Amino acid sequence: MGKIAVTERVTGHTELIGLIGYPIRHSMSPTMHNEAFKKLGLDYVYVAFEVDNDTLEDTVKGMRAMKVRGFNVTMPNKRKIVQYLDKLSDASALTGSVNTVVNDNGVLTGYITDGIGCMRALADKGVDVKGKKFTIMGTGGAGTAIIVQAALDGAKELSIFNRNDSFIEEAKQTVKKVNEQTNCKATLYMLEDQDKLRAEIASSDILINATCVGMKPLEGQSLITDPTMLHPGLIVHDCVYSPRETKLLSIAKDAGCITMNGLGMMLYQGAAAFKLWTGKDMPTDYIKDILF
Ligand code: NAD
Predict the structure, then answer these.
(1) Ligand 1 pocket check: which of 75, 239, 246, 248 to mutate, most ligand atoms within 8 Å of Cβ?
(2) Is 78 one of the annotated active-site residues of the chain?
(3) What is the pLDDT of residues 114-161, one digit of tens each?
(4) Do 6-112+266-291 and 115-261 have matching folds?
(5) Does ligand 1 have an atom closer than 6 angstroms to the CB of 152?
(6) I want to staple 37 with a disulfide (CB 3.0 to 4.6 A). Which of 42, 214, 235, 290 is the partner?
(7) pLDDT tens across 156-214, in order?
(8) Set 78, 132, 177, 247: catalytic member
(9) Is 266 in the pocket of ligand 1 (CB under 6 A)?
(10) Is 90 marked within a binding site?
(11) φ, ψ of residue 254 in degrees (nearest 5)
């Protein structure tokens, strides 16, 4: 069956879209994009390549030389790739990271679609982020992308919390850039300050967990254990999607919050990349049925 499917789909005209990272074999992106290409009858194929920092520069040169339409970029290459590209989207420039590259006749432009994915997942729940206040826990790759996109999309205020670890210096830079370059007010707090966290959540519309807490090996743990820190109607988005319901989401549900796991963000970051490469809307309802 595999042979028939490949010879029917892949011809001399088929264009390549890549995914570069390491490790990469677990990724859902090849299934997501190839199913979407097939469904829409688009002549592309999406293939994952094991590429780390050491082989990144050669890979980008190769992608350009082979005139591929584009590729996704994941860990450990999301920041390092910036130096090899020609242009960056506003969000990529603000975050200093890239997860999607588009090749327009040899000009490589980097985008970051993780934040777009989160904003679209919120929109799916009927949430317009304009004028809203967010509390965001975590300033790694996911957190930074969400901070920047929320600010670009018109959020009023972002209260950002991170523990005192290796991410904190970069977080200070992100907050500075958001305050200087957008109309959004961003403030960084230490996650260890639980009273501050409680107060900021109390005046927020949306709470985001963009830390690894809640997924393996921290599955069953939550940065919020006291449900009185949450209020009914608060939107609680956990970037984690495995497990589908984290400890935080279960506490939030009991507290009367509107809860969302990271599957929507994952789907829509892919849909945004798909649109950049093909100009077409990914058939997201169809992909949801296949993947989730
Ligand atoms: P990262 O390594 O870049 O950042 C990790 C973040 O978690 C940092 O802010 C760090 O300070 C924090 N952290 C780690 N351990 C902690 C602990 N014990 N207590 C408090 N904070 C802690 O990782 P990332 O790529 O930003 O991923 C963060 C989470 O978001 C992961 O769970 C990942 O699966 C998820 N994610 C989801 C999507 C999606 O599409 N849904 C996309 C990217 C990441």
Answers:
(1) 239
(2) yes
(3) 999 999 999 999 999 999 999 999 999 999 999 999 999 999 999 999
(4) yes
(5) no
(6) 42
(7) 999 999 999 999 999 999 999 999 999 999 999 999 999 999 999 999 999 999 999 99
(8) 78
(9) yes
(10) yes
(11) -65, -25
The ranges assigned to domains in the chain are 6-112+266-291, 115-261
The Cα–Cα gap between 271 and 281 comes to 7
Which CATH code is given to the segment(s) 115-261? Answer: 3.40.50.720
If you measure from the C-alpha of residue 261 to the centroid of ligand 1, how many angstroms do you get, rounded to a whole number?
Answer: 13
Query: At 193, is the secondary structure helix, strand, or coil?
Result: coil
Report the residue among 112, 119, 149, 211 best suited for mutation to probe ligand 1: largest number of ligand atoms under 8 A from its CB.
Answer: 211
Could you report the predicted ipTM of this complex, rounded to two decimals? 0.99
pLDDT in tens, 79-120: 999 999 999 999 999 999 999 999 999 999 999 999 999 999
Q: Is 149 labeled as ligand-binding?
A: no
The pLDDT of residue 238 is 98
* CATH code given to domain 6-112+266-291: 3.40.50.10860
Phi, psi (degrees; rounded to nearest 5) at 255: -85, 5
Tokens for 58, please give them: 């050669």
pLDDT for 14 beyond 90: yes
